[in-house]
């Protein structure tokens, strides 16, 4: 993506300064401190990882077409490595960095009206830490891979004979610090680099979401880091902290792990919710409903996220009191989540909806997230969880949230900001078709798995009873449909780089600051300090046929000023 | 603008009494900077005058405050990073309180205490270095940084002696805690064991009638434990050392915890099960802390180098200040580690 643009002839007259062509050459990218370039590099790296993780997902689904061995050569042990790699790559290399590090890096300072993030060098450092983490994952594959599942549960992770466990633990440790530094950068940026006029409650909701996410990244990830180090120590010199035969406690690992990894679920979903708040409002051309509630619900979710980790361990021998408390607190996460969904719905109501590709993704998100969230209630309920624990029901639930919501939100955001990032418009027809194919494929794949799980099919199994086969076949077909949708998306976006028409500064009619600068933005983001108003008040915008974008109309602005919204 | 900002920034940090005034001054200067931006959009008025000022900050104070907030967030991650180990400590100690009160006596309180003092003193010199940086006393600042560095070196040297002493006594981690190396078991014992009919690992042959049963040394016995003969039937092992020691009137482990012969803890009948866990968490926590001290030494060396080069003054002391914050948290962690390991009872 990056090289293509750098090599294209530039129309200097229409784009006097543009971050993509501001400087040239490999080093100008490799050593850049520009948050936009770092964001683009993250995006490219994350999408490559997404492809790799997706290939492993398809291998897993294909292997499950029939009971026993389906793909020649894929034994149960190889299969274990496949699903482990799929999970680890998708969680640590794709979803966690996708929105904050890739889209967030690109958008956050511009939305805020800042020239850059607070610590640009640290930002570049985070990216190289990400690369190092990814490299360790490759080293681990070369050393025999790992079959622990992405959760690295002890005692299996300390005793399995696959050779790549230690490198991948180091890899995830490094990725964790990449995530921590990105989070630190964003918190400080939001606190310290807001221009005059950008008060907390004038920030776009995406920034609130990224801010809440950054807090979780900073506070939760170090616990994962030390836990992984303990597993490495346990595996190398066997100190016994997680080993029951030496007085240690394997459940302690689960506590540590979920103390990070449950908040990590919100690291994945919160920024996607922020994106959806933007998409819904901008593409329905209607002021977001319940701004403060959506903003504060992000903070509420961030706080709740630290208090619910025990719901992963209902069957791990926690005391009944703890189970009950964790169950209750888990239910309460539904409140801020529902606050968001209802406010989005209300924003759509009587909105002037443009069915653009980002809007299709936003609508998909609302359906998929609602299903994912409500099935979470099933799993937070103690007695149903005992039945559904470690079945495909859980697999389906967290795919609805982590993929159907977090990744769909990310792809929607990518479409939303693609004109800003690349200066090109993609084909709306292709984009919409791809979104609908993905939506159908996703539901065929994963809705089936709810049924499969409720019938008792355990997760992570290589083999199964013949009675489950029909559902596995349906699910696998769904995954192929979904994959074709993603390939179509990739074609749609990449072809736009060559043949897309030039994007206007404000192609969708957005009101936040990134739409005030040119597409793509200049190196310093803003030639003059932009004026900050209500970013969800679209009344001053008018569609302009000549530029194929929205422009600020002084007459409409004056009329809007006479009728304040609040 | 240089003339005006320099003394003011200096005032801000100089006394507490002027702090309120200084904060309002800070805001004024920030507002002025914004105005300047309005008039001269890309002139970078302040940036030409302050070479260290990065392009996305308005004033030196703005940059300083951002860096400081960043460091505080990093310290929060450090607290949580160590927090995992503190929780592990709490879990282990609540499960095996007897292990902690017993094994703590093997640690050298004097060495730990001296190290605590060394670190507290180095925190003082670090704080002084920050102060001297803010008041343009570069030479004094560099000397204080050097003293802080020496404190770190002193800490690591003492820690080295502690670790090597522990390892000499075979107070180590994991299962090897119960397996003395051949050269430490002593030739005589080795011979006895080699003639024993079913040679069990030396680790678990605590063959004293008064000793706890071998199986209880670890809560669930490892596989080898089943091969071990009942205590009374075992002919020798470490018990012979112990009997010999008692006969000669030498101190033995149960009345002298500082009993310093290698692996002598194994001869102590009062050693509770799972004592190895104390040393496991001890090495993890003090080791992680030691790594942080080493990182702090790298940081201090960098600060000394830059300070000696004359990079820091009352306008620009951010690295010294945030470096100082890091150094204080390293000290603070030790302040918790010291009583948690050395001062039980």
Within the CATH hierarchy, at the fold level, what is the topology of the largest domain in chain B? Four Helix Bundle (Hemerythrin (Met), subunit A)
Quote the distance from N terminus to C terminus of chain B. Answer: 61 Å
CATH C-level label of the largest domain in chain B: Mainly Alpha
Number of strands of chain A: 4
Features of the shown structure:
heterodimer; A: 566 residues; mainly alpha; Cytochrome C Oxidase, Chain A; two-stranded antiparallel ribbon; 4 strands; disordered N terminus; B: 345 residues; Four Helix Bundle (Hemerythrin (Met), subunit A); 3 domains; 12 helices; elongated
In short, what is this structure?
The complex is a heterodimer of chains A (566) and B (345). Chain A has 566 residues and is mainly alpha-helical.
Question: What would you note in describing this structure?
Answer:
- The complex is a heterodimer of chains A (566) and B (345).
- Chain A is mostly helical and 566 residues long.
- Chain A has one domain (34-562): Up-down Bundle (Cytochrome C Oxidase, Chain A).
- Helix content of chain A is 66%, strand content 2%.
- Chain A is built from 18 helices and 4 strands.
- Chain A has a two-stranded antiparallel ribbon. A two-stranded antiparallel sheet of chain A has the order 3-4.
- Residues 1-15 of chain A have low confidence and may be disordered.
- Chain B is mainly α and 345 residues long.
- The longest helix of chain B has 36 residues, at 60-95.
- At the A-B interface, helix 7, helix 8 and helix 9 of A face helix 2, helix 4 and helix 11 of B.
Layout of SSEs?
The complex is a heterodimer of chains A (566) and B (345).
Chain A (H helix, E strand, L loop, with lengths): L1 H6 L18 H5 L4 H29 L12 H37 L7 H23 L13 H4 L5 H28 L12 H33 L12 H34 L7 H15 L14 H13 L1 H15 L8 H24 L1 H7 L3 H31 L1 E2 L2 H27 L14 H31 L1 E2 L38 E4 L4 E4 L1 H9 L4
Antiparallel strand pairs in A: 1-2, 3-4
Chain B lengths: L1 H13 L4 H21 L5 H5 L10 H36 L1 H7 L5 H26 L3 H31 L13 H4 L1 H9 L42 H10 L27 H35 L8 H25 L3
Helix pairs in contact in B: 1-2, 4-5, 4-11, 4-12, 5-11, 6-7, 6-12, 7-11, 11-12
